[in-house]
């Protein structure tokens, strides 16, 4: 997902009566804000409430209602049923609200169906196609204009660094790194969609005693040809082998520690091979990330943190009496904050990752002057991150003070049982290839559809990757989950392939109905026909869901949860599936052209928003499969 232009003030071609402004609302980006303001105005007029307070009490309904208000939250005098009656007595159906129903302590509001459908679909279409095209034309950009429906300006003028993935060079790209990659790439897209300037950063584990092990092991087991073919895999093989040697030969680790000390001291002979390994590993990672539809702005690593920064940090910590010695090593005592003790320098004088993290954070702030820095790291590292943030705070950096909320740890649970179908733990590319192969075999069972796909192997891989990502993001990120091949690759139920199938189905409608194209502008379409009694509920459900998407994005920004966007995508896919037989396009004849075009427009808007949600989740929506 490319950086999104902040949404410009835009006037819909479909207008409704003007309403007062409410802070932190933007009907030009989320037209349902207008309908909520209309409800708030009714509450304000009937109950004497401040308009903003009334607005904050208007929530999305949970049982099929559009919006619901829990009256007790306003703490008004009198019985709740009498308060409700005041609102009902004041209400007259209008261009925004169709009905109000009292239900114990709640009021349920139903929006004006024809106006809601037209307002939402017009906004979806214009912010996906019309406004981006105008922006591209005015900037003389040759890039394909990107839809801005669902975006907002909450982060305009602010900068965020999102550090994620961060695998260890020469160790397998394990599932913890995969989760960090999936969640971090989503967060980078999310912040871009919210107007922030985003720096996606991959902080590689490219330094430490393990490189002493590999350096000594490479002399014995290294193979230049294997290294150039797949540096990550070959270095991992060496790492495994040399660790086996260390189990029976205690001198192996002593040699490794001595080698790493030479690296830290800047010995060129010790660093030469390491530089080659690092460069080849990054080259391989870039290829792997591209398959996952993930791009980084900066590849950095522990090795790039300067010794000066680390020494300065240690000196600063000693001045505030946080450092104590133990067997020649230096420790931070954080026990008064219930954070235990942490090593900052080993007894041989070499650094440890906490020291490098501290030095790295200070260098990053000096270089980027970020407003926020997000670390996407497993919950197993909760203590380390808490220690790290506390140390920066105690060092007195203004940007690291908790009141500024500039340092954020986005954590996540474990993946259990991630292995090949034969049960062996593997590298990421083997998981992707296996998922792709299973999908490819399934695709070949329908020869006609298979022959229509331009690149079936690539398509199968995208479906497999979608399966991996959706299984990872479907539940709250803090939850552990069990990797399940059969569930992940199924086209039934709430899975990645099911979402791709829903998008492909929507994309096929234009191909199957060329006689209805090109569609007129929204203002010339008979969208009121979508509110006809026999199809209104299904069409209405889709339109209302589309209208909620900008709020889904805003909520995700507050919670850092991809699961809310995944849930939205599934709800939309289910609504489309439910409408498929009732809101038919294909079987309508020429005498019902207006109705068919209105329906095709509805499904086109659904395709645009489902595609936008998938792209936000770093998934490439497919046109055929």
TrEMBL record:
Superkingdom of this protein's organism: Eukaryota
Enzyme class label: ligase
Catalytic activity, as annotated: tRNA(Arg) + L-arginine + ATP = L-arginyl-tRNA(Arg) + AMP + diphosphate
Gene Ontology MF: a single term: arginine-tRNA ligase activity
Start and end residues of each DALR anticodon binding domain: 499-625
GO BP annotations listed: arginyl-tRNA aminoacylation; mitochondrial translation
The keyword Lyase belongs to this UniProt entry's keyword annotation: no
GO cellular component, one term: mitochondrion
TM region(s), chain numbering: none
Keywords: Aminoacyl-tRNA synthetase, ATP-binding, Ligase, Nucleotide-binding, Protein biosynthesis
Keyword Nucleotide-binding: yes
UniProt-listed Enzyme Commission number(s): 6.1.1.19
Family: Belongs to the class-I aminoacyl-tRNA synthetase family.
NCBIfam families recorded: argS
Record protein name field: arginine--tRNA ligase
Record organism: Ephemerocybe angulata
């Amino acid at each position: 997902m490319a950086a999104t232009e902040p949404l410009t003030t835009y006037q819909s071609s479909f207008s409704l009566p003007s309403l007062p402004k409410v802070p932190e609302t933007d009907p030009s980006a989320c037209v349902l804000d207008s309908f909520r303001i209309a409800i708030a105005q009714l509450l304000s007029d009937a109950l004497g409430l401040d308009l903003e307070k009334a607005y904050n009490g208007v929530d999305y309904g949970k049982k099929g209602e559009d919006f619901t208000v829990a009256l007790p939250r306003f703490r008004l005098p009198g019985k709740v049923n009498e308060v409700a009656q005041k609102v009902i007595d004041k209400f007259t159906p209008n261009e925004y609200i169709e009905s109000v129903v009292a239900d114990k302590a709640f009021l349920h509001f139903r929006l004006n169906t024809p106006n809601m459908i037209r307002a939402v679909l017009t906004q979806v279409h214009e912010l996906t196609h019309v406004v981006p095209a105008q922006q591209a034309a005015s900037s003389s950009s040759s890039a394909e204009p990107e839809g801005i429906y669902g975006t907002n300006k909450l982060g305009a003028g602010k900068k965020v660094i999102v550090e994620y993935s961060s695998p260890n060079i020469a160790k397998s790209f394990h599932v913890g790194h995969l989760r960090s990659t999936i969640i971090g790439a989503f967060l980078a897209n999310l912040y871009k969609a919210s107007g922030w300037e985003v720096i996606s950063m991959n902080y590689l584990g490219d330094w430490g005693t393990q490189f002493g092990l590999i350096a000594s092991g490479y002399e014995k087991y290294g193979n230049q040809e294997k290294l150039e073919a797949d540096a990550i895999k070959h270095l991992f093989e060496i790492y495994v082998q040399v660790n086996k040697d260390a189990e029976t030969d205690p001198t192996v680790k002593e040699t490794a520690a001595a080698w790493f000390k030479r690296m830290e001291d800047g010995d060129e002979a010790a660093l030469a091979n390491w530089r080659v390994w690092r460069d080849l590993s990054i080259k391989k990672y870039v290829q792997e990330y591209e398959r996952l539809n993930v791009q980084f702005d900066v590849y950095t690593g522990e090795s790039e943190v300067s010794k000066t920064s680390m020494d300065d940090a240690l000196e600063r910590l000693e001045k505030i009496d946080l450092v104590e010695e133990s067997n020649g090593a230096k420790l931070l005592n954080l026990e008064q904050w219930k954070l235990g003790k942490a090593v900052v320098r080993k007894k041989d004088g070499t650094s440890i990752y906490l020291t490098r993290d501290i030095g790295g954070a200070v260098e990053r702030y000096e270089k980027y002057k970020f407003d926020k820095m997000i670390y996407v790291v497993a919950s197993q590292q909760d203590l380390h991150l808490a220690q790290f943030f506390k140390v920066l705070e105690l060092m007195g950096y203004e940007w690291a003070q908790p009141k500024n909320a500039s340092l954020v740890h986005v954590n996540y649970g474990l993946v259990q049982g991630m292995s090949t179908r034969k049960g062996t733990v593997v590298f990421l590319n083997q998981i992707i290839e296996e998922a792709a192969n299973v999908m490819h075999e399934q695709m070949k069972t329908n020869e006609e559809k298979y022959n229509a796909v331009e690149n079936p192997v690539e398509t199968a891989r995208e479906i497999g990757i979608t399966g991996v990502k959706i299984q990872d993001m479907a539940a709250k990120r803090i939850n552990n989950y069990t990797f399940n091949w059969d569930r992940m690759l199924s086209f039934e139920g709430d899975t990645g392939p099911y979402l791709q199938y829903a998008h492909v189905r929507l994309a096929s409608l234009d191909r199957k109905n060329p006689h209805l194209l090109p569609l007129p502008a929204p203002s010339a379409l008979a969208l009121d026909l979508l509110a006809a009694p026999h199809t209104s509920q299904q069409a209405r459900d889709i339109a209302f869901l589309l209208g909620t998407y900008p709020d889904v994005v805003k909520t995700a920004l507050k919670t850092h949860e991809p699961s809310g966007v995944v849930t939205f995508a599934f709800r939309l896919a289910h609504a489309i599936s439910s409408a498929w037989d009732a809101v038919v396009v294909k079987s309508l004849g020429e005498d019902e052209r207006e109705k068919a075009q209105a329906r095709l427009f509805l499904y086109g808007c659904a395709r645009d928003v489902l595609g936008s949600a998938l792209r936000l989740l770093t998934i490439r929506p497919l046109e055929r499969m």
